[in-house]
Predict the structure of histidine kinase.
Amino acid sequence: MTPTREDERPDPEDSAHTVASLWALRACEVLCVLMFSTAIPWQRVTTWFGVIAALGVLRWWHVNRPWFRASPKPARQRVYRIYMWVLMTYVGSACWFLYVPANLPIQAVLMSYLLGNATLVAVRLTGDVMRTTIALVLAVLPTSLRFIVEGTLDQHNLLVMMGVGGLLMTVTMVFLSRAQESNVKHQVEQRRRAEAAANAVAAMGLSKSRFFAAVSHDLRQPVHAIGLHLDLLMRRGQAAQDRASRRALDGIHQSWRALDDLLSQVLDLTRMDSGAVQADLRPTELAPLVADLVMQHSAVAEAAGVRVVALVRPAAFAMADALMLARVLSNLLDNAIKFSPAGATVAIVLRGARGQWRLQVRDAGMGIPHVAQERIFEEFVQIDNEARDRRRGLGLGLAIARRFALLMEGDISVRSRPGQGCCMTVSLSRAAPPTPAASIAPAHAGAAVDSGPAELGVPPHEEPWPPSVLPLRDVLLVEDDSLVAAATRQLLRSWGLRVRHVETADDALREGAHARADVAICDARLPHGGSGLDVALALRMRGKKVLLISGETNAVLREAAQFHEVQLLTKPVSGPTLLAALQAL
Ligand code: ADP
């Protein structure tokens, strides 16, 4: 709901009526009682000021009750106004009760008192011209008019001047209030515009996420199909083809890998931005994880002539998702090696800091200029690669790494000077070593799903083919995308399987009732809103083994598959992964 000007205005009483200001007002009133008592019977003065003090205390007590503070703002404002009208009307009555004809000093005290009161109210109401005017008129006008009417310019000109002063003061306050009101209006308008702009940006972000989710799903289908065809082609034709064809095939394969890599990274970002990725935080020992990484990168480091050393003490545990942390460190190590000159050393160092572990990846490379140090964590930002040379990376690694670090409730930062190398630091909370029972569980013990290379973590690599021996004969393929279906069918046939292909959920259930298929491979999203998971569950009830393949970045589907213990692969799925999954069934 858009805020109204009324909502924007602060509660007049919230800050104004502190205990100190309450007692300061009471002290003023006692002083006034003393002064007026020199000219008017003290009983009248005390009663008049007593009523004012009682009203003030009553209001203070009332507006400080917890139930009053908890009431809605419009109701509170109404109560404040009632108190104010009552008080101002009563203050205005001073022109009868405290008026002493011909006693000019006392009249001056009266005028000062009234103006003081009016100023207080005007200060609180400034910004609301109508209410300020009414309040001032109620409090000051009766006495000002009486001064003017009863004073005559030759005898009581001081009285007349006081009356005119009162009127001028009223008018000034009204103008002040009007200026303030336009200021408040301006502020409200500005806030409204800022809110509208923020909403528009949020809506754009959401539609961008949706757009990427849709695009990446649709991109995955052909990439998945090309990969399957390619695997088949490479396996079949390696021996037979001439050198030129093999080189062309290798080129296609490399391009497919690059496309797969880009798609995987964009998908990782999309998944994280849409909240589909969650960290599985467990006490993770850092030394073995780092040792594994160093080993994995040893070939690349050797080729670049870079030495990698790890200085990580054993038995240091951090709260982390092992896969995510490996992915983060792998990216940092990749960069450190990539940007180091031959003969340099890259060090992974563990440091302790209040309740945290800091894993630093240090290199002696070209470093990063200060102005670019935050930008490198943004998507597609690379320094000195305006031509976007793909061989120098995609510029997504650190964007993903930072998101992973944040998901693990940690952070990642950079310290660097151009020409003097770079130190990337991943900060994570310390954890106590896990109890022996918990440590038996693998890092993702709960997962009944196979994340596949497009899921977290595993950077694309050449997968070895498992021996294509399958204890199966017949496969029911439920896939509506003709390209994917054709590629999968061919690949399955190359493994000696008989394939029955259907496109819809109804056909799958009908076929499943009598076909002899041992295994059903189901696409997760079927035509006419059909759910691959429902089909898989129904077929499993009929004694078939099921494998679900999804092109979606959808956490709900993953959780549902996990819950029902259905194996889920995420597209693009390579030939070796599919073969291994079928063997595991
Ligand atoms: P990529 O390495 O794929 O280009 P990243 O997101 O990992 O993408 O890195 C973004 C950019 O940050 C790199 O292109 C490079 O310019 C800079 N960068 C990252 N790490 C280092 C490093 N260790 N030394 C120098 N520059 C680096």
The longest strand covers residues 345-353. The chain has 21 helices and twelve strands. Residues 331, 335-336, 339, 363, 365-366, 368, 376, 381-383, 385, 392-399, 422 surround adenosine-5'-diphosphate (CB under 6 Å). The longest helix spans residues 157-237.
